[in-house]
């Protein structure tokens, strides 16, 4: 697969383009690319540019061709609302959610979240997750980078405006996913922490209009649940069906 790099700030097609230092370092020091090697650049504004590496070092440049209108976004716009999880679980969730087509990831602090974040520590962790999202786009072929939102409380998130239906995953809930009507626009899925949502949180979600949802009789881990929902939604309403995607 041709290496892909995210270059924010806008590309200049059909030109010799100066690579950002981080991209140049990764291309030369990590991937060991050489002058003349092919690469693909994207700036998050849609489409991508194929190019050839012209120079390396501090002034690394690539000769770009025209912008190609290549999009690999799903027809279903899913925001994953993920309760904070401990260890490297959030890294895993962000990476795989981007690969599975989520358009945004919103971290929320739940009552039973083991990981507690606030202030500068929270800002640094969100910036880290955003870079994971960038790397996942480079790997998976996406040309639009999903945003990772600032950490907020569940109450604050639910008090905000809802763009389309919101589903809250809860073991034992009634209402199979396959019986849900496909929404006309975006939707959100709320995933609880390691200890699950508290009764008070589920009540708060219900009052905010969230629809309860269960995925079969088994209890899934927090790092599994959101990814399973994303895969199921892509199969039902997104771009998983069809031989052309195999």
From TrEMBL:
Its EC number is 2.1.1.193. Residues 73-234 form the Ribosomal RNA small subunit methyltransferase E methyltransferase domain. One of its GO terms (cellular component) is cytoplasm. Keywords: Cytoplasm, Methyltransferase, rRNA processing, S-adenosyl-L-methionine, Transferase. Signal peptide: none annotated. Its main location: cytoplasm. Pfam families: Methyltrans_RNA (PF04452), PUA_4 (PF20260). It comes from the Bacteria. InterPro entries: Alpha/beta_knot_MTases, PUA-like_sf, RsmE, RsmE_MTase_dom, RsmE_PUA-like, tRNA_m1G_MTases_N. GO terms for biological process: rRNA base methylation. Specifically methylates the N3 position of the uracil ring of uridine 1498 (m3U1498) in 16S rRNA. Acts on the fully assembled 30S ribosomal subunit. NCBIfam families: PRK11713.1-5, RsmE family RNA methyltransferase. Belongs to the RNA methyltransferase RsmE family. This is Ribosomal RNA small subunit methyltransferase E.
């Amino acid at each position: 697969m041709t290496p892909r790099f995210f270059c924010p700030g806008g590309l200049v097609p059909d030109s010799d383009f100066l690579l950002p230092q981080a991209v140049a370092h990764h291309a030369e020091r990590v991937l060991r690319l050489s002058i003349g090697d092919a690469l693909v650049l994207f700036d998050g504004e849609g489409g991508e540019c194929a190019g050839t590496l012209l120079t390396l070092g501090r002034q690394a440049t690539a000769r770009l061709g025209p912008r190609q209108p290549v999009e690999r976004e799903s027809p279903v716009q899913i925001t994953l609302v993920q309760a904070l999880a401990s260890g490297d679980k959030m890294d895993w969730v962000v990476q795989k959610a981007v690969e599975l087509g989520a358009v945004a990831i919103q971290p929320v602090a739940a009552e039973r979240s083991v990981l507690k974040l606030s202030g500068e520590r929270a800002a640094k962790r969100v910036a880290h997750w955003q870079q994971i999202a960038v790397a996942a786009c480079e790997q998976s072929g996406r040309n639009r980078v999903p945003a990772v939102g600032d950490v907020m409380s569940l109450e604050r998130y639910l008090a905000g405006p809802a763009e389309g239906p919101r589903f809250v995953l809860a073991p034992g809930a009634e209402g199979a996913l396959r019986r849900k009507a496909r929404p006309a626009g975006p939707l959100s899925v709320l995933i609880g922490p390691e200890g699950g949502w508290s009764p008070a949180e589920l009540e708060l979600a219900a009052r905010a209009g969230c629809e309860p949802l269960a995925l079969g009789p088994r209890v899934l881990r927090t790092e599994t649940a959101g990814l399973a929902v994303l895969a199921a939604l892509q199969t039902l309403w997104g771009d998983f069906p069809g031989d052309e995607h195999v």
